[in-house]
Amino acid sequence: MTAIDAIQGVTNACQALPTVVTGGQPGPHHLQALQAAGASVILDIRDPREPRGFDEPAEVARLGMRYVNIPVGPTPLTDELMASILDVLRANAGQTIFFHCASGNRVGGALLPHLILDQDMEEEDAIAIAGRVGLRSPELLQWGLGYSQRHR
User: Fold this and answer.
1) Three-class SS string for the chain?
2) Exposed, middle or buried, 20 (CB in 10 Å: 0-12/13-18/19+)?
3) How far apart are CA 30 and CA 89, in angstroms?
4) What values do phi and psi take at 20, rounded to 5?
5) pLDDT in tens, 130-141
6) How many angstroms separate the most distant Cα atoms in the chain?
7) Mind listing the domains of the chain with CATH numbers?
8) Distance of CA 152 to the CA centre of its chain
9) 6-44 pLDDT, tens per residue?
10) Distance between CA atoms of 47 and 57, rounded to whole angstroms?
11) How does strand 14-17 pair with strand 20-23?
């Protein structure tokens, strides 16, 4: 089983990069399948107060994976917030990561600089992947592209 197989049924499940799968909120069975598929990091950018239906950090810990929560919500979309997300992606390069929010929208915006700056993708190719990931918000698109342009 691969990581993308593990998240079948998750909203906007996507194999964004060879070691990065993305999507909306997983269920406990998705986390178990991710662990079985070799995932080692769960990067959750939902606010801890958003409903999940189960204790995601505790389930991830029980499965022996690393849980990282960097809330992206109504707070300002700053360069510092983006840098903290990129730090996790960069520090875990080569490991299988499941990067999620509720629907994939926030993940799409936050993934853009990783695709452009770290994967040397052309902007239009990165935007196409972000769309498959679930990006729908013009504000999140501008956050990701703006960060990329300022940090080239």
Assistant:
1) CCHHHHCCCCCCCEEEECCEEEECCCCHHHHHHHHHCCEEEEEECCCCCCCCCCCHHHHHHHCCCEEEECCCCCCCCCHHHHHHHHHHHHHCCCCEEEEECCCCHHHHHHHHHHHHHHCCCCHHHHHHHHHHHCCCCHHHHHHHHHHHHHCC
2) buried
3) 20
4) -125, 115
5) 999 999 999 999
6) 40
7) 3-150 (3.90.190.10)
8) 21
9) 999 999 999 999 999 999 999 999 999 999 999 999 999
10) 12
11) antiparallel
Q: Which amino acid is at 1?
A: M
CB 81 within 8 Å of CB 5: no
- Each residue of 45-68: b (16+ CB within 10 Å) or e? bbeeeeebeeebeebbeebebebb
Task: Please identify which residue in the block is written with the tokens 């730090």.
Answer: 87
Q: How far apart are CA 146 and CA 112, in angstroms?
A: 10
Tokens of 22: 């993305």
Nearest Cα residue to 47 out of 82, 75, 73, 79 = 73
